[in-house]
Amino acid sequence: MNRQQLIQQIFAKKSFLCVGLDTDLKKIPSHLLQEEEPLFAFNQQIIDATAPYCVAYKPNLAFYEAFGLKGMVAFEKTIQYLKAHYPNHFIIADAKRGDIGNTSAMYARTFFEEYDVDALTVAPYMGEDSVTPFLGYEGKWVVLLALTSNKGSHDFQLTTDAQGERLFEKVLKKSQEWGNTENMMYVVGATQGKMFADIRRLAPNHFLLVPGVGAQGGSLQEVCKYGMTSECGLLVNSSRGIIYASSGEDFAEVAAQKAKELQEEMAVELASINR
Questions:
Q1: What pairs with residue 188 in β-bridges?
Q2: Residue pair 144/122 in contact by the 8 Å Cβ criterion
Q3: Which pLDDT score is estimated for 148?
Q4: Tens of pLDDT along 235-253?
Q5: Who contacts 241 (Cβ-Cβ below 8 Å, separation ≥6)?
Q6: How many CB atoms lie within 10 A of CB 30?
Q7: Can you name the residues that pair with 185 across neighbouring β-strands?
Q8: CB contact at 8 A, 142 and 94
Q9: What whole-number distance in Å separates Cα of residue 256 and Cα of residue 99?
Q10: Which residue, of 20, 113, 149, 250, has the greatest Cβ tally within 10 A?
């Protein structure tokens, strides 16, 4: 999916919601454990319930790799189900890959050729040759870690050099030599609040993938105040706050309601944009 197609979906659906599929066998409703493929059964019902209210899905690979072959089969079936039934939804594989060039090239082949997802989260720490192999696929996106929502993000991302430049700022500036607004996004945690203004100073037009709204306490309104652009420029992710909103047999209906509530808040924010 290219940039204009993504923007079109956002304004058509009045939503920039991404639903995170962090599917944990220990957290899904107990009645699903009787299913032959409980992980996929959970995902399928969540997707069907929330699809009207979101534009993207983000399965987190750790939650599938943890269950070995069965988990990866569930991941692959989830991707296939989305592509067959909801082809206009943007799919982000949250795998945080990045290694020396030939290894990154194989990761890129895995996710962009074998699984054919739209985007992949990538760690920038190893530099240019670890990122550029992911950028050679037309219509595919690198989602580069910039300023994350976890507490430990301050350990490295906010450290400064002799000139006072913070590490996340260096990542933003340097990476724009490798990719552009058509093939690169940045991960910026919703809990970073006003620091979105600093992000936008250096990356005014790039899309931002924003985790941390909901269970992690990030404010959608604050994210929009400092991070929204005339083309929206945001994909705001919610995982636990939607998919685990209920542990009963009504889990899908409750997930739909939570997604709808976020979508309605997003519609208000989008209405304020002068396009």
A1: 147
A2: yes
A3: 86
A4: 999 999 999 999 999 999 9
A5: 213, 214, 215, 258
A6: 10
A7: 143
A8: no
A9: 38
A10: 20
